[in-house]
Each structure stands twice: as C-alpha cells, then as structure tokens.
Write a structure and sequence with these properties.
By secondary structure, the chain is of the alpha/beta class. It folds into two domains: about 140 residues, Toll/interleukin-1 receptor homology (TIR) domain (Rossmann fold, 3-Layer(aba) Sandwich), CATH 3.40.50; about 100 residues. It is built from five helices and twelve strands. The strands form three sheets. Strands 5, 7, 8, 10, 11 and 12 form a six-stranded mixed beta sheet that branches. The chain has a four-stranded parallel beta sheet with strand order 2-1-3-4, sandwiched between helices. Helix 2 packs across helix 4.
C-alpha cells in the first residue's frame, strides 16, 4: 500500500498522481491523507501509525502549503520518518511548487524527481511525464525486497521456523535463497507470498559445524521458482528486483 501525504490545498496534484498511478492499485492501492482530514478528538498519532504500518511506500507532495501545515510538519512527517528508520518504509517525495524544502527534514532525503523545476512550472504534457517517472519509482520501491537487518549475525538453528526474513511485507512474491560460506551454491528456501515477511529456512545439515556462516538473498521473479529437491539452484533465476545479502550464523 502507498501512503500519500499532501496539503489539502494541493488536491489538484493528488488527483493527477492518482490517475497516473491507477495501474498500481494491484499492489494494494493508494491511501491519500491530507491535513484537512483532521476531526476533533481523533487520536492522530495512533491513526497515522496504524496506516503507516500497512504501507510499503510513502509519497510526499511537497509545496509551501505542505511545509506550512503544523499537522504535517509536527505529526505526520515525524511519524513517516520514524517508520522509515524503524521498519524501512520507503519515502519518495517530489516538489510541487517552489518552497524552502532545504530548511526542512526533507533536505536529507533524495527527491524522486529533479528539484530544479517544480511541477507547477511545467505544462500538462511535462507533468504527465514527471508523474509517470514517479509511478515507476513507486513501483520499484514496492517490488524491492529488503531483508530484515535484525538477521545480520543472528544465530540460527538448522531449521529456522517462521524466520522474519523481510524488513517489511512484500508487494510481490519473494523467492529466498541461502548459501554457505566459501560456497557458490545457492539453495532455494521457498517463497514469501505478497503481504508476508516470514519463512521457514534450512541452514546446512546435522553435520554442519557450529559458527558456520550462511548468506541469504531475496528476489522477485516473473515466474515462481519450483521445488529444487534439495539440489542447488544453478543458475539463479533472472530477477526483477534483488535484495542485498545478509549473513546469519549456524548454532
């Protein structure tokens, strides 16, 4: 799911983005949230946290109105940055109009598109092209598998049941492979279906020496990887997106 943060005064840009992003609904759709959605008495921090927990990507439509909103700057944006730090939420932002974004927390975040010319200064055809680029960046972020950093150096048993492999729920099925130190052979562990993070993985045999390292990767593919019957996967399948490797230690 894609969480979209914007000022209600920039509704036009949200509408344009939603139209361009319509084909991405198969990944869970968009959840736009505006500072105009505030209702008296609502527990906003809890509500925002709940929505962000189910999001894979956050898109920010940045303008002077966005930066001038107390709600966005004091509640929404801090919650988004917290989710980015704690669970790897992908944050993508683009410049809608000229503003002092360099004087905000966005200064340390890479913008999805060039900040030299905001959308407001482009014609309709140019805006469509920029929104298409944005949608491609969102699609890549939705598909990109990210391994849970808590696995780094983790002590695991031969059969690691319900191991949390992914940092965040995946938007596509992720095929998981593992290989032993000093070996080029990758063994298919199975696939993690969309929306899930955990998988039971097998590391070595009963004869595997303690403190042996195993490397894990995850990748999205165009076709499911069939059961390998205990044999290494040679060659690895062609992939759409692939994660960084993570190393665990066999007990």
């Amino acid at each position: 799911m894609v969480f979209v943060a914007y000022s209600h005064r920039d509704r036009k840009w949200l509408d344009d983005f939603e139209e361009m992003a319509a084909p991405l609904k198969k990944y869970g759709g968009l959840r736009p949230h505006s500072d105009k959605d505030i209702k008296p008495g609502e527990e906003w921090r809890r509500r925002i946290d709940e929505m962000l927990r189910s999001a894979t990507v956050a898109v920010l439509l940045v303008s002077r109105h966005f930066l001038n909103s107390d709600f966005i700057m004091n509640i929404e944006l801090p919650a988004i940055l917290k989710a980015q730090k704690e669970r790897g939420l992908e944050v993508i932002w683009l410049l809608v109009s000229h503003c002092l974004w360099e004087e905000s927390p966005l200064e340390s975040l890479q913008a999805a598109l060039s900040t030299s010319v905001p959308l407001k200064d482009l014609n309709e055809t140019q805006c469509d092209a920029e929104f298409k680029k944005l949608c491609k960046a969102v699609k890549e972020a939705l598909e990109r598998p990210a391994l849970d950093p808590a696995m780094k150096g983790k002590a695991v048993t031969r059969k690691a049941e319900n191991l949390r492999v992914l940092l965040r729920p995946c938007a596509r099925r992720v095929e998981v492979f593992a290989r032993q130190d000093n070996s080029a052979d990758w063994y298919h562990q199975g696939g993690i279906d969309a929306g899930n993070q955990n998988l039971t993985c097998y590391f070595g045999t009963e004869k595997t020496a303690p403190n042996t390292g195993f490397h894990i990767i995850g990748m999205t593919t165009d076709a499911r990887v069939p059961h390998q019957g205990g044999k290494p996967t040679k060659p690895l399948p062609s992939y759409r997106q692939v994660s960084d490797q993570m190393r665990v230690i066999r007990k």
